[in-house]
Design goal:
The protein is an alpha+beta fold. It folds into two domains: 7-13 and 90-210, no CATH class; 27-87 and 218-289, no CATH class. It has helices at 7-20, 53-56, 69-82, 108-111, 122-134, 151-159, 204-211, 219-233, 239-252, 254-259, 267-281, and strands at 24-26, 37-38, 42-43, 86-95, 98-100, 115-119, 139-146, 167-171, 180-183, 189-193, 197-200, 284-289. The strands form three sheets. It has a five-stranded mixed sheet, with helices on both faces. A five-stranded antiparallel sheet has the order 5-6-9-10-11. The longest helix has 15 residues, at 219-233.
Length: 292
Amino acid sequence: MWAEFKEKPFETYFLAEMARRTTVLYSPDQTDEGIVGFDGAFFIPDPDFRVLLPFIRSRRWPHFIGMTASEIDHFGRALDARLPPFNLNLFVQYKRPEWMRRSSATEWASWNAAYFRYTIDAKQQGLLEKILAVGAGRAAVVYASAAFWANSDLFALAGSKGIIANSNIASADLLTGHNRYTYTDPGGHGIAHSEPEYIEGPSLDGIFARGADNERLPFTKHVKATANLIERGLDESSTDYALWQSAREAILGGDFADAFPRARSTWLDAIVSMAAFSQAFDIRIAAVGTEE
């Protein structure tokens, strides 16, 4: 049977807990309270930025027509001064698991007990592998799935900040060549199929610790580097690249793109690229930062 909850509420609670484990966390398709968010526009809670709100907080992107590239750069410098530096990108594919309770289940022999299962999409897996390959150590790519199935558990664990502790994290690079993944418990261990292979990857805290030695970049430089990483991970002649470009255009809108061509090289455009990637491929990006 499928978990009672869908990916989105699980993702929301998971991301909220992840933010508490870092100095700063930024995701382009979630509003990060107290930092900076993106949901088709920016939300900046600091009163020092109120003067920018006529340009920033509007219903759709065409309202940005009144902002020049130099103003965007100035705004970016203000964000860089306010936020801690960033050192890691976490690409996450959230999965809704099946709870397999019958001995007739396909992978039962691997556990001889009830287990959780999800399918690995070959196209999505290939894209995650490309992102990891070009990430040069600044990107971690994982699958995250609940080690529980009931709605009541989801809400109880969310209230007690226990979502991550009761989730299974599988490193995407360990799942190459497989089409399903099974597990019985939280943590980083499970079995990849169809030819069963036991895997064990690092915990989320271990991933953060591993990225702590990376060069710390200001917010605007980090998001530009992330957008560049995404573009290099997509073959320009591929359907994936075309889909990503379509998602970018959908976010920007034709009026904005035509009226504001110089924005293409800005940090704001980099955030559009990140958001478009998430929307096109259902792979979430979290930029992780730490204090010096």
